[in-house]
Amino acid sequence: MNTKPLKSIIKVKKEDQHIPPIAGFVFAIILIGSIKVALLLDSMRMSDLVIGTTVLALAGIATYFLFAIKVASQWEKVIVLRLGKFTGLRGPGLFWIIPIVDTAVLWVDHRVAVTSFSAEKTLTKDTVPVDVDAVLFWVVWDAEKAALEVTDYNSAISWAAQTALREIIGQMSLADILIGRGKMDADLQKIIDERTTPWGVTVQSVEIRDVIIPPDLENAMSRQAQAERERQSRVILGESEQQIAASFAEASKAYINNPTALHLRAMNMLFEGLKEKGALVIVPSSAVDSMNLGGLSGMVALAQNNMPKEEK
Q1: SS3 15
Q2: How far is residue 312's CA from residue 309's CA, in Å, rounded to a whole number?
Q3: Measuring CA to CA, which residue among 294, 281, 287, 300 is closest to residue 259?
Q4: In a 3-state reduction of DSSP, which class is residue 259?
């Protein structure tokens, strides 16, 4: 059984460590201004204490703006804690926090996420081991629940999807899995969505990508399908023979009480067979005696010999 952790294409972004460009810009402006103020105070012959105090105050303000300004992307919501307690969501766009007191602990992505998951060597209802690969499309609709109700909703969704897939496979036979992927997708979506809704996550769709069966079983199924096609072809051939026999039986009724018509039909058939140059027709001896086909064939052969030869 595969117990490796699953990975999602969209990763959870925890506590933003980078400094937004606008915060760095404000910090640089205030720092440059503090230097100019210090030079101005020095030119006014202010005391070193006043100059130092002013510079420290401006540097503190610059540092505050450096860590207080945050920027969230259009698709993000930010979880902000104040002294460890949830205070609300911030973003998208520019927002402020109080350094040291406030912490932006989690940046939740509201775009559709894609997670691939699989179930390896899982037994079906008829005890056939199969490997199934699937893709899950989901989205966070409540960032607060996603942050507060589950430790890592990204991993939780992946494991919930894999568990649901194993559960569904155990309830279906191999034939149902191979021909009923649509129903399997719908059942998976329903089960996973019920488990993830309390976390503020909704499942948009589930798609089964591939179903892999053991090679020996695949060869056996191929031979079975070939044998079934051979059986069907033999059945169709037998039905065709029955239809042909029935047609001949129906046609023979016209000649039962009319030997002259039967004789003329035999003459026509013999003529059609012998009119081609070099043709050979084999008929039963009983037909030759009863229908006078011997004399008729001699007449046809004589007529062919007397026909003018084609110019080369």
Answers
A1: coil
A2: 9
A3: 287
A4: helix
Report pTM.
0.61
pLDDT, tens digit, for every residue of 143-195? 999 988 888 888 999 999 999 999 998 888 888 888 888 888 888 999 999 99
- The residue among 201, 75, 78 whose CA lies nearest residue 139 is 201
| Surface-to-core class of residue 106, CB atoms within 10 Å of its CB (0-12 exposed, 13-18 middle, 19+ buried) | buried
For residue 21, the SS3 value is: helix
Q: How far apart are CA 113 and CA 7, in angstroms?
A: 11
In sequence order, the β-bridge partners of residue 85 are 82
The per-residue pLDDT for range 238-255, each reduced to its tens digit, is 888 888 888 877 777 777
Residue 92: cis peptide before it, omega within 30 degrees of 0: yes
Rounded Cα distance between 74 and 78, Å, is: 11
Non-local CB neighbours of 144 within 8 Å, separated by 6+ positions: 79, 86, 89, 200
Position 27 confidence tier, pLDDT thresholds 50, 70, 90 = confident
Q: Specify whether the CB–CB gap between 196 and 138 falls below 8 A.
A: yes
Q: Is the dihedral of CA 114, 118, 124, 128 positive or negative?
A: positive
Show the tokens assigned to 155: 């991993």
Distance CA 124, CA 172 (A): 6
Name the residue among 169, 153, 154, 189 with its Cα closest to residue 118: 169
Phi, psi of 36 (to 5 degrees): -65, -40
Total Cβ atoms within 10 A of residue 27: 20
> What's the one-letter identity of residue 90?
R
Unique residue bearing structure tokens 């488990």? 195
In which element (H, E) is residue 93 found? strand 93-96
